[in-house]
Amino acid sequence: MSEAIANPEDKAQPIPDFKRPGDGENVISGEIPNPFDIPLADLNPVSARLFSEDKQWDYFKRLRAEDPVHFNQTELAGRYWSLTGYDEIKQVDSDHHNFSSAHGITLGFPIDAELPEGALNVSMFIAMDPPTHDVQRKTVSPVVAPSNLANLEGLIRQRTQSVLDSVPLNQPFDWVELVSIELTTQMLATLFDFPFEDRRKLTRWSDVATAVPGAGIVDSEEQRRAELIECLQYFTQLWEERKVNPGSDLVSMLAHGEETHDMQPLEFLGNLILLIVGGNDTTRNSMTGGVYALNQFSSEFAKLKSNPALIPNMVAEIIRWQTPLAYMRRTANHDIELGGKAIKAGDQLLMWYVSGNRDETAFERPNDLVIDRPNA
Question: What is the band of 149 on the pLDDT scale with cuts at 50, 70, 90?
């Protein structure tokens, strides 16, 4: 890696707290209103409370029906659009010429705005456009290629059995903590060849990376920054070790990849966060959502038990039904029309996968889990 990471003493420097777009700009106080009683122009699904109370569905239902390319504007984020229909999301998601990932993949500050002091501006290959995205992704893709996962199947089965055997019988327990988090963290540690005794650091860093200060994970932006620097320092030590003694793990692949071996520290951190969150957060959410869904739709569970060959299709359907990643962002490269709306260059577009995967025009019975769904 080019240059050493930030001086550890930087952690002691006071970092001014600041709000990021979405961190309280759309606060809903009191009872959450019925979205059909709100003027359409005032609807804004960017609200943590909507999701924490599972009240987002009718908001998206109305937007899909009446305004699938919906405009909002706030002081911190500037102009942005919520895409809620399946077709509009698919169009933007697949068009890197007109809609770029390079300015960020979550709602952020306007692209011409000066970042607040203390903000970490990290780069990651998911926030890049082809061909750079494809080249960097290719560096780490062998570790999750079907052939390598087949080699890990025995270990995955062994650890799954061990984790399930450890849960208490005939009494309530926390499935997320004892199964979803533990199993995904064990396997993520394996992919990184990360010290197994420290594996829960991966869980913590994943939570911190996606946390909103003051919402229960970290208290301030300063704490969030300090913990992410700790993550970078830990992995930098692993990087130096793997430069000398490489293995077949993700860190070794990044350290020796032709396009990644000279990454700047913040780019390394960005890709670490991507791999940690992608391997931990979304996986545990799908695992948890799948168990919940099979309990909600008992006939589908019975269908699965009678025909285990449905498992591969069921996995795809669980991802559709659960949608572990609520949205991603693109930025318009130039003025363009989308869904009859005039999008301006620099506008942010939020592709609400959680809404598109429940689009009534794309899926029959979209709110139901159907494990043999033909278009899961």
Answer: confident
Tokens of 282: 């979304």
Assess contact for 254 and 271: CB atoms under 8 A.
Answer: yes
Mean pLDDT within 120-130: 52
- Give the whole-angstrom CA distance, residue 50 versus residue 45: 7
pLDDT of 342 > 80? The answer is yes
Task: Transcribe 66-95 into DSSP letters.
Answer: H-SEEEEEETTTEEEEEE-SHHHHHHHHT-
264 DSSP assignment:
-
Q: How far apart are CA 376 and CA 371, in angstroms?
A: 8
Which contacts of 154-163 are long-range, i.e. CB under 8 A and separated by 24 or more positions? 155/190, 156/187, 159/183, 159/186, 159/187
Matching CATH number, 8-356, of 1.10.630.10, 2.60.40.3710, 3.30.565.10, 1.10.10.60: 1.10.630.10
Instruction: Give pTM, 2 decimals.
Output: 0.83
Residue 219, φ and ψ in degrees, nearest 5 = -85, -25
Q: By the 8 A CB rule, do 279 and 184 touch?
A: yes
The CA distance from 125 to 270, in Å, is: 8
Residue spans per domain, the chain = 8-356
Residue 290 burial class via C-beta count within 10 angstroms: exposed 0-12, middle 13-18, buried 19 and up = buried
